[in-house]
Amino acid sequence: MVDLHGKKVVVVGVTGQVATPLAITLSETASVIGAARFSSPSHRDHLEAEGIECVTIDLENGDVGNIPRDADYILNFAVAKTNDWTRDLDSNVGGVLSLMEHCENASAFLQCSSTAVYKAMGHHVFDEDGPLGDNHGVWEFLRTYSTSKIATEAAVRWAARRFEIPTTIARLSVPYGKNGGWPAIHLEMMLNGSPIPVHVDAPSTYHPIHEDDIARMIPGLLGAASISTTTLNWGGATPVSVEEWCSYMGDLCGLGVEFAPTEHTIDSVMVDLSRLHEVVGETSVPWREGMREMVAARHPELLPSTS
Q1: Following DSSP, what letter does each residue of 115-168 receive, concatenated?
Q2: What is the pLDDT of residues 219-246, one digit of tens each?
Q3: Is the dihedral of CA 58, 63, 68, 72 positive or negative?
Q4: With a threshold of 0.85, does the pTM exceed it?
Q5: According to the CATH classification, is domain 8-176+208-238+270-284 in 3.40.50.720?
Q6: What's the chain's Rg over C-alpha atoms?
Q7: According to its UniProt record, which protein family does this protein belong to (predicted)?
């Protein structure tokens, strides 16, 4: 594990669901610079109120000059999902190359990837050498996502060698917490009475990971970085299905849950976390506890009164 106390840490894509709470947590000990387009001024205001220095960048055009070149660590959580192939590949692939070239003096670089890079294979458990494929292409609104992530990983590996930057690629499963996530979307669907799509090859199983565990594991992920690039699956220690977490939230909140089996949704992506546990350790937030906390933060009125 690296010691981030007093270090200059750049969080790229800081306005995103995962990166916002991460940057705020890291700012308790590190000097955090949040980098994004900041198309919404309220995002900048919120982060600056938390003591985070905000700088504007544009990865699509390779404009990263506002990021300090003397930063100690770079955490890239940015991802373009416009569904335009040219724009998304330019932003994700070209953008990360511009970023790593600009930050070549960093002590380590962390690229947040996704378990969406793995080929859909039912209930297969993927280690980091597993076959890659267009897992998310089945979702029309995310048709560029998996391919962009795979291409970005290749660019990151090349840049790590070219600029001699110790690098970790962390393939994130399902992040969630007070700031949202896929389970939070499911909660809103349940409130609206909408059926929850699940794959016909039930159950639809992943490794949900709480935002607190994401922040806690950053020093270890950075410590694992190497110029040859260290690739790790990144998720909660307990595999949990969509059916399980929706049923739990339904029971917790007194909501009915309707599932809609379909082939037009992503398949299960279960991963082998042995390498993560060996290098970084296990997650510590039990999924039920984390889901309850998420509900309490986003819809406290749904929980029974404890008074």
Answers
A1: GGGBPP-TTPEE-TTSPB--GGGGSGGGTTHHHHHHHHHHHHHHHHHHHT--EE
A2: 999 999 999 999 999 999 999 999 999 9
A3: positive
A4: yes
A5: yes
A6: 19
A7: Belongs to the NAD(P)-dependent epimerase/dehydratase family.
